[in-house]
Amino acid sequence: MTLAQVTRGQRVSIVSIPNETVRAQAIRFGISVGAEVECAEKIPAGPIIICKGKQEIAIGRKLAEKIEVKPA
């Protein structure tokens, strides 16, 4: 399952970020393999908004499709 497939309110753990460039971008936001995040909002044909702690991050749909997750 990818981050783009999560539903609003769902908590997931990051399993894999295969693309090196995507991984570097995610680390800048404090997201790495093993991190638990919650889907705060899923905008139709737009970004996925996730929460990690008190931080909200909008991740573009194309980027979210490259991040593999599992239910937490």
Annotate the secondary structure layout.
Layout: E1 11-16, H1 20-28, E2 36-42, E3 48-52, E4 55-59, H2 61-64, E5 68-71
Antiparallel strand pairs: 1-2, 1-5, 2-3, 3-4
Structural overview:
This protein has one domain (3-71): SH3 type barrels. By secondary structure, the protein is of the alpha+beta class. The protein is 18% helix and 38% strand. It has a five-stranded antiparallel β-sheet with strand order 4-3-2-1-5. Strand 3 and strand 4 (55-59) form a beta hairpin. InterPro entries: Fe-transptr_FeoA-like, FeoA_core_dom, Transcriptional_repressor_C.
Broad shape: globular
Count of structural domains: 1
Order of helices and strands: EHEEEHE
Strand order of the largest sheet: 4-3-2-1-5
Number-wise, the strands total: 5
Largest sheet: 5 strands, antiparallel
Q: Separation of termini?
A: 12 Å
Alpha-beta content class: alpha+beta
Strand proportion: 35-45%
| Average pLDDT level | 92
Q: Could you name the CATH class?
A: Mainly Beta
User: Can you give the helix content as a percent range?
Assistant: 10-25%
Domain Ferrous iron transporter FeoA-like: 1-71
Protein name: FeoA family protein
Organism: Thermosinus carboxydivorans Nor1
GO molecular function, one term: transition metal ion binding
